[in-house]
Amino acid sequence: MDYFNAFWVGGLICALVQILLEKTKLLPGRVMVLLVCVGAVISFFGWYEPFMEYAGAGASVPLLGYGNILMKGVKEAVDESGFIGLFQGGFKTGAVGCSAALVFGYVASLVFTPKPKK
Asked: Helix and strand tally (H, E) in the chain?
């Protein structure tokens, strides 16, 4: 049942985003930022953990999950360092994902030959 819940929740998130892209004039970058911000807001209110327990990877893998990770890091850093934690927390928790994206992107550029658009 865990796989089923992850599949339908992740699929629903993707379908809603696709509808948002098709029916509005929002650019993909803005929709991505919107998803991260929504994930952070849901995390702020404490609703993301129960949502993630139910949906598993369907909730933790999309950009909503990245917003949750950033907010969790900010909360922990504020508890440890006070006001300066607002600026430290997101960088600490988000660094692994960003670093992995950069490394895998670089490896992919070495393995595959890009083709120019015609």
From this structure: 6, 0
How far apart CA 79 and CA 89 sit, in angstroms, is 10
- Residues 5, 6, 8: CA angle, nearest 5 degrees: 65
Domain boundaries, the chain: 2-111
Residues 45-55 as b or e (16 or more Cβ within 10 Å = b)? eeebeebbeeb
CA–CA distance, 43 with 51 (Å, rounded to integer): 10
Burial of 61 (0-12, 13-18, 19+ CB in 10 A): middle
Q: Is the pLDDT of residue 12 over 80?
A: yes
pTM: 0.76
pLDDT tens by residue, 66-90? 888 888 888 888 898 888 888 888 8
